[in-house]
UniProtKB/TrEMBL annotation:
InterPro entries (alphabetical): Ser/Thr_deHydtase_PyrdxlP-BS, Thr_synth_N_sf, Thr_synthase-like, Threonine_Synthase, TrpB-like_PALP, TrpB-like_PALP_sf
Family classification: Belongs to the threonine synthase family.
Name used for this protein in its record: Threonine synthase
Upper taxonomic lineage: Bacteria, Pseudomonadati, Pseudomonadota, Gammaproteobacteria, Alteromonadales
Top-level enzyme category: lyase
Keyword Amino-acid biosynthesis applies: yes
Record's keyword terms, sorted: Amino-acid biosynthesis, Pyridoxal phosphate, Threonine biosynthesis
Domain Tryptophan synthase beta chain-like PALP: 96-372
A GO MF term: pyridoxal phosphate binding
Organism: Idiomarina aquatica
Family matches, as PANTHER family: THREONINE SYNTHASE FAMILY MEMBER, THREONINE SYNTHASE-LIKE 2
Associated pathway: Amino-acid biosynthesis; L-threonine biosynthesis; L-threonine from L-aspartate: step 5/5
Length: 431
């Protein structure tokens, strides 16, 4: 059994069980046994096409629980859009992860998870659809809803704070219908998340609804994200391959954990920098060794407004097993003012971006070493944050087709008070 529960090491499970269960005993996260992860033949891998290479990586991460053939086929289906490395200037490039159906990097993880969950059910002889309930401030809900839309393996329920997700973003999940339901909760994101937590603590609901979560605690999402870091290296010139540092705009620290996993597997990343906004629990922790989340602050990069990053135990597990990684990992916080200035600086260099990516750009400027090339991770398309970006840059943004086509569609969401009983009844009534 290749995956271990980080909160209770007596629980080891297969990859497919981890996908089905989501969270282990004592709320523990599943993770590979770091000491058992192989070093991959990087040169050979970088010469392969994306899907085939991803098949090898995914199979290795899952300890062989998925065959290379199956994993390649899943990668082919899930990652059917580009992840280009685009030059910003001499010293900086952007790994653009926003060319999927919902224009954010979460499409990679969500699409792979949808395939992995279907496969997990097949392996387990379980043909009862799962209920996937997810709280979102935007990107997760859209990616998960799109990935599971019209899949018989699951029904998706997206909870989001009413009037606090941009109307355009909300339309990516409120207009779908079929097996995707959306509920605008009259409250804030924390209240949505609290409702979901309560649901997972309700044993009867978990069982009756065959409940699953699609947030970044699901190990399949994390594994999918390792693949695009290798893809980035395949695109870098050999001159840059040994002097490139990855800078990841971070909230729950899933994406940056995937970069560290890629490093553990042998990808020659110079350093990994986790860039946060003013929700700086991790940068403070790395200085003081005190874990002291403060109340969450609202920022321009709102998908990163998280003060207790739920993937942190995974990062710690990696660093604990491999101190060398620790020497090549750091985390920096970026102020609102610096975010605005970074967005403007990018624009003046001819690169139109958005606030999350701008946080990474600013962090790299602060930390850059002599001769180092920075690969900032572009986590969302500028059009997803069009209003904000237009306001800051005074430039107008053209909406890509995928966003244009949801504008005319009817919204099918319900509205609800942040009331657990009401949510429970709503979920139980659906057959
Ligand atoms: C989710 C998200 C992030 C944060 O990613 P984590 O894996 O949670 O650290 C950053 N940028 C955007 C646009 C996101 O949607």
């Amino acid at each position: 059994m290749p995956l271990v529960n980080l909160a209770d090491e007596s629980q080891c499970v297969s990859f497919y069980d981890a996908v089905r269960i989501g969270l282990g005993r004592s709320q523990g996260l599943f993770f590979p046994k770091v000491e058992e992860l192989p070093k991959l033949p990087v040169d050979e891998l970088l010469a392969m096409p994306f899907a085939q290479r991803s098949g090898v990586i995914l199979s290795a991460l899952a300890g062989g629980d998925i065959s290379i053939e199956d994993a390649t086929e899943m990668a082919q289906q899930a990652f059917n859009f580009a992840a280009p490395v685009v030059a910003v200037n001499e010293a900086v490039s952007c790994l653009e992860l926003f060319h999927g159906p919902t224009l954010a990097f979460k499409d990679f993880g969500a699409r792979f998870m949808a395939l992995a969950l279907a496969k997990a059910k097949e392996v387990n002889g379980d043909n009862r659809p799962s209920t996937i309930v997810t709280a979102t401030s935007g990107d997760t809900g859209a990616a998960v809803a799109a990935a599971f839309y019209r899949q018989s393996s699951a029904r998706v329920v997206v909870l989001y704070p009413q009037n606090k997700v941009s109307p355009l973003q909300a339309r990516l999940f409120t207009t779908l219908g079929d097996n995707v339901q959306s509920i605008a909760v009259n409250g804030d994101f924390d209240q949505c998340q609290a409702l979901v937590k309560q649901l997972f603590n309700d044993a009867e609901a978990v069982n009756h609804l065959n409940l699953n979560s699609a947030n970044s605690i699901n190990i399949s999402r994390l594994f999918a994200q390792v693949c695009y870091y290798f893809e980035a290296w395949a695109q870098l010139s050999t001159d840059k391959q040994n002097r490139t540092t990855i800078v990841v705009p971070s909230g729950n620290f899933g994406n940056v954990c995937a970069a560290l996993l890629a490093m553990q597997l042998g990808l020659p990343i110079k350093r990994v920098i986790a860039a946060t906004n003013s929700n700086d629990t991790v940068p403070r922790y790395l200085q003081s060794r005190q874990w002291q989340p403060s109340p969450t602050k609202q920022t321009l990069s709102n998908a990163m407004d998280i003060s207790a990053p739920n993937n942190w135990p995974r990062v710690e597990a990696l660093l604990a097993h491999n101190p060398e990684l620790g020497g090549r990992f750091e985390s920096v916080s970026v102020s609102e003012q610096d975010t605005v200035e970074a967005l403007q600086a990018l624009h003046s260099q001819g690169y139109l971006s958005e606030p999350h990516t701008a946080v990474a750009f600013s962090a790299f400027k602060k930390q850059q070493q002599q001769g180092e090339h920075g690969l900032i991770v572009g986590t969302a398309h500028p059009a997803k944050f069009a209003e904000l970006v237009e306001q800051i840059l005074g430039a107008s943004i053209e909406l890509p087709k995928r966003l244009q086509h949801v504008i005319g569609k009817a919204e099918l969401n319900q509205t609800m008070e942040p009331d657990y009983q009401q949510l429970r009844e709503f979920l139980f009534d659906y057959q």
